[in-house]
Amino acid sequence: MCVCCGDELDLAQAEFVSRPELCRACRLAPPAFVRAVAYGPYQDGMRAAIHALKYDGLHPAARRLGRMLALAIAPLAAEAPGEMLVIPVPLHRSKHAERGFNQARLLAAHALDALRTTHPEWRLTLASSTLMRLRSTASQASLTPRQRRLNVRGAFMVFDPHAVDHQHILLIDDILTTGATARAAARALMQAGAASVWVATLARARRYSRNGHNESASDSDSFTGDQNQTTGLRDDAPADNPASMHGNQPSF
Ligand SMILES: [Zn+2]
Questions:
Q1: Rounded-to-integer distance, Cα 237 and Cα 66, Å
Q2: Residues 48-61 as b or e (16 or more Cβ within 10 Å = b)
Q3: In the chain, where are the structural domains located?
Q4: Which of 58, 84, 126, 163 is deepest in the core (most CB within 10 A)?
């Protein structure tokens, strides 16, 4: 996987490029964030759980998912700064009004609860009103990577630049697909004076399926899963077995 964004690497190209540890996107247009980490792939039980949270408003899912997000964030403790502002990717106010809550904020709050126990020395402060979404961006689901970049370009603004000036930021979202949203938000934060931006998401969706069709990390049901993908949910969370969370009655 790409050491920067976590996307799958095209190993066939590895010997022909100068920085084989990076994916093509990160080589050609380095993102403003240092690194993006995710708990696991956007599929099966993870996909069902995120849907339950976002679209069915199943808030008990957030606690469980927040703990999983904390597991993704924990390894950053070794290399990220010891004091960070944790900023959930905001929804536009119209979307927020429609959904009633921001799932990224909810996940961030639960992840911080878990990290306070496991990493009490890590000073992580939730700053959920620091970043604003200026535009109600079209759903990314049916867009190509290029369209996604254009769709979110300039969509974010830092409400109070003093709040992020010289601060290290941990940006939180539920899903990362092309990274367009994380890139746009990270750029806005860096332009406002942030010292560094790191990104953690619950799930990582692949940019493209193997047949070349764009995959949705949103709500379309085009995702068919992939038996060859080996990066399943972690072994250390057996209760999060996709089978137990699949279907209409996720077992949180
Ligand atoms: Zn990358």
A1: 13
A2: bbbebbbeeeeeeb
A3: 1-30, 33-210
A4: 84
Catalogue the E-assigned strands of 70-194.
Answer: 83-88, 123-126, 131-133, 156-158, 168-176
- Rounded CA-CA distance 161/170 in Å is 16
Distance 251 CA to ligand 1 centre (A): 33
What CA–CA distance (Å, rounded) separates 3 from 221?
A: 29
Ligand 1: centre distance to CA 227 (Å): 23
pLDDT, tens digit (0-9, with 9 covering 90-100), for 91-119: 999 999 999 999 999 999 999 999 999 99
Task: Determine the distance separating the centroid of ligand 1 and the alpha carbon of 26, expressed in angstroms.
Answer: 4
Contact 90, 102 (CB under 8 A): yes
Full-model pTM: 0.80
* Residue 64, both tokens: 């469980």
Give the distance (Å) from ligand 1 centre to CA of residue 23.
4
- Beta partners for 199? 36, 171
DSSP state of 216: P
Residue 176 pairs with which residues in a beta bridge? 204
> 208 C-alpha vs ligand 1 centroid, how far in Å?
14
Nearest partner of 202 among 236, 177, 176, 226, judged by Cα: 176
Burial 222-249 (b: 16+ CB within 10 A, else e): ebeeeeeeeeebeeeeeebebeebeeee
CATH number for the domain formed by residue range(s) 33-210: 3.40.50
**How confident is the model over 14-44, as pLDDT tens digits?**
778 888 899 989 999 999 999 999 999 999 9
